[in-house]
Design brief:
Length: 286
């Protein structure tokens, strides 16, 4: 498989963020960094990213919130469940959320992290007061046929670094940021990335998005959600169609690393959503 034919698969990895569930044993705890005091804001990154990449946005929230930055399974110091599934990853996130106050916890999750957070919200809505999903997809927009899969996986196995560069260098707002994004992804063991990718090829968890019971906000970057594209189109592509309870927001001039590109705007969006979620809960109790 040539590098040019790899492009659709690169787009696939950028967009997709869901997988089928399988019952599995609990894995070890996820690595976290906790800062500040107040209601909890739990920040989960995307595939190939690290928890500290949230720091520019986290700094904007520290004066009012207890910020919990979490590494994905198989990233940084977080263990990879064996065997891996997104259900197992959601169980690891559940253990993190269990240590927070559920009456005030807001989960903010990016990309594949958004899938994990949606599955956790579906399984344990009592753990959080609200959910923000950033550029998260609930279905594969470019499914690969069974006939294509052997060639695709063979190419990835034999040309892993080329695959990684093709995917991640294209994500930056410029070439320098693209190199930075790639360098972070290269720190994740290749076996872990390949495991995620294998599960991301034939997925559709749009039903999980439609069944959410917690207040949910979908936040799109201008890179993934151009202002010329309607939400209806984005929702259909990313598996949020039919999720009528989900509100939306778009952060202008933002790329894949929205938390780095537009920390002020993203932090303001998170804080506004949190205040509204707390108000809804208070009204419901009264």
């Amino acid at each position: 498989m040539s590098a040019s034919r790899l492009a659709p698969f690169a787009l696939l990895l950028v967009l997709i963020a869901s997988a089928p569930l399988r019952a599995e044993a609990p894995a070890g705890p996820l690595a976290v960094t906790e800062l500040g005091k107040g209601p909890a804001i739990v920040l989960l990154p995307g595939l190939g990213s690290q928890r500290m990449q949230w720091m520019p946005t986290a700094r904007k929230l520290l004066s009012s919130y207890h910020v919990v930055m979490v590494d994905l399974p198989g990233h940084g110091d977080s263990p990879m469940p064996d065997p891996f599934s997104f259900e197992a990853a959601a169980a690891q996130l559940d253990a993190v959320l269990a240590k927070q106050n559920p009456d005030s916890t807001i989960v903010v999750a990016h990309g594949v992290g958004g899938l994990i957070a949606v599955l956790e919200a579906k399984a344990h809505p009592e753990r959080m007061r609200g959910l923000i999903a950033i550029d998260a997809s609930m279905r594969s927009p470019l499914p690969i046929s069974d006939q294509q899969k052997p060639a695709f996986f063979k190419f990835v196995d034999e040309n892993y670094d080329t695959f990684l560069k093709t995917v991640y260098r294209s994500m930056g707002r410029d070439s320098a940021q693209g190199v930075e994004i790639y360098s972070k992804a290269a720190l994740v063991p290749s076996a872990n990335v390949k495991t995620y990718v294998r599960l991301l090829l034939d997925v559709d968890e749009s039903g999980a998005a439609r069944s959410l019971k917690v207040p949910t906000l979908y936040v799109g970057s201008s890179r993934a959600w151009p202002d010329t594209v309607s939400w209806a189109s984005v929702a259909k592509t990313r598996g949020w169609d039919g999720a009528t309870q989900v509100r939306t927001a778009r952060i202008a001039n933002s790329g894949y690393l929205m938390m780095v590109d537009q920390p002020d705007s993203l932090a303001a969006t998170i804080a506004s959503f949190a205040r509204d979620a707390y108000s809804r809960e208070k009204m419901a109790k009264n």
